[in-house]
Amino acid sequence: MCCSVGFARSLGLALVPLALCCILANLLLLFPMGEIIYIKQDRLASYIWYFGGLGGGGLMMLIPAVVFSSLGKCSFCWNESLMMCGSVLAAVIGLVGSCYCLVISGFTLVQGPQCFTSEGWAYHFADQGGRYLLQPETWSRCLQPVNIVEWNVTLLCVLMGLAVLEFIICLLQLASGLVNVVCRPFCYKQEYSLNA
User: Which of 3, 79, 144, 178 is exposed most, by the fewest CB atoms within 10 A?
Assistant: First the structure.
C-alpha cells in the first residue's frame, strides 16, 4: 500500500495540541492580564473579535486532526479511495484555518492594542503600520490595561507561530494524500505483476 496511514495519524496527533494552544491563546487575548473589565467595556482590539485562534487555528484545525488520526482505524468507515480524498479535503480545510489564524493575528499585530493613554482610549499605534513593534520604548504610553502591548505581542506571535506549524503539517498531508491518489493505480499494478 502506497499511502502512509501512520504518517497521517502522527500528523493528526500533532495538530491536536497546536489547536488547543491556539484556542487558549485566543481566549487569553480576550482577558488582558486575566481581567474581565476590558471585555465588558469593549476595550479590546477589533480584530480579536474575529477569533483567528479560536476559530481558524483552533476549532477548524480539529477537523483535520480527527480525520488524519482516524485514518485506517475503521474498516467500514473508509474505503481506500475515500480515505485519501477525505484526508486531502481535511488538509485543505486545515490550510484555510491556519491561513485565517495567521492573517487575523497579523492584522491585529499591525493594528496594535486599544489602550488608555494621556489622550484617552484609542488605537495609538494603528497609524504606524506595525513600526511600534520595533520601538518598545513607546509601549509604555499605554497606561491601561497594564502591559497590554507586551501581552498582545506575545500572544499574537504565539498564534502566528502555531498557525505556521499547522500550515506546514496540513501541507505535508495534502502532498502525501495527493501523491497517494496519483500513485495508487501504479502500486496496484505492481502488486498484481508481482503476484502473477
Answer: 79
